[in-house]
Amino acid sequence: MKVMIALDESKGSFYALNWVLTNIIKPRTAIVAASQEGGEEKEDLVYLVHVNLPFQTYVYPAGPVIYTATSVFESVKQAQEKISAGIFARAMRCCEDMNVKSEAMSLRGEPKEVLCQAVEENHVDLLVVGSRGLGMLKRAFLGSVSDYCAHHAHCPVLIVKPPKDLAHQEEEGLQKNA
């Protein structure tokens, strides 16, 4: 089975990863044991996906010369890559601890559209996304990656809701940062 898990910096996405590793994916050791008993089970593969939002480049007129903020663009791109690397390091460690084969994919674009495209390109059997538990009003204005994927992905979509205490902690953290 090929499972794609959408990750970001949120506790909810890592809760979804751990939930899937515990409840859906078979560790390599179980597959080896089954194959030794005569059964042929294929190894599960987990795609760990983090999508960076595209950076809007701005062009500033400076008299007859046009100035683009390439240094700003490069620094934002490096910061995004550093965040992705941190997310992947943590997620790969979780997969290794559970003895699950995984691959990391860093993509760029609008997350909901890029996830659906990656599902199709990689022939994924299941897409897993975490839920931040946005209210109806916030979801209407901000959009919902999980809702979009549930309607547009070409495979089953599992939306993993975190326990109330984890969702509450995350909501408080978002309000403090605003």
Q: How confident overall, as mean pLDDT?
A: 81
CATH fold-level label:
Rossmann fold
Helix content: 40-55%
CATH top level assignment: Alpha Beta
Q: Taking strands numbered 1, 2, ... along the chain, how are they ordered across the largest sheet?
A: 5-2-1-6-7
What distance separates the N and C termini?
Answer: 40 Å
Q: Radius of gyration, Cα only, in angstroms?
A: 19 Å
Keywords:
178 residues; 51% helix; single chain; 5-stranded parallel beta sheet; globular; Rossmann fold; alpha/beta
Can I get a quick summary?
The chain has 178 residues and is an alpha/beta fold.
Describe this structure in words.
The chain is α/β, with parallel strands linked by helices. The chain has a single domain, classed as 3-Layer(aba) Sandwich (Rossmann fold). It contains 7 helices and 7 strands; from the N terminus they run βααβββαβαβααβα. A 5-stranded parallel sheet has the order 5-2-1-6-7, sandwiched between helices. The termini are far apart.
